[in-house]
Amino acid sequence: RTFGMISVLPGFSGHVPEGLKRVFPGVNFTRAAQWNNFGTEYSNGYLLEPTDPLFGDLASKFYQILQSVYETDHVYNVDTYNEMEPSSTDLNFLKESNAAIYNAMKRNDPNATFLMQGWLFRDERA
Hints:
α3 links the parallel β5 and β6 (113-115). The chain has helices spanning 20-23, 53-70, 91-108; strands at residues 9-10, 15-16, 29-31, 46-48, 75-77, 113-115. The chain is built from three helices and six strands. The termini are far apart.
């Protein structure tokens, strides 16, 4: 910032530790497939679906802590399904997921900009 650069902070994408399944047993978590032949120690993470009602609550806590530590230039990177297969490829589901991510971001920072790499999904056939 001193050099006039805009910082891009991570946004909340729903990636959560496995322990949340125990704390919230009725919540919609999905487990990612093994990534790039890495073992489960380094892949197969859990994702709280953005369309689940708990998503907004966790996102708010995430953004509050993030902003208190780093302040913000209002730009957040979220690549929810980066190199992953989403739990559904239905276009309405993907639209609703991204809308939930964006809405959570805007609720916590009205000036937020949603930055995405645009390199999504993973195709096993490739």
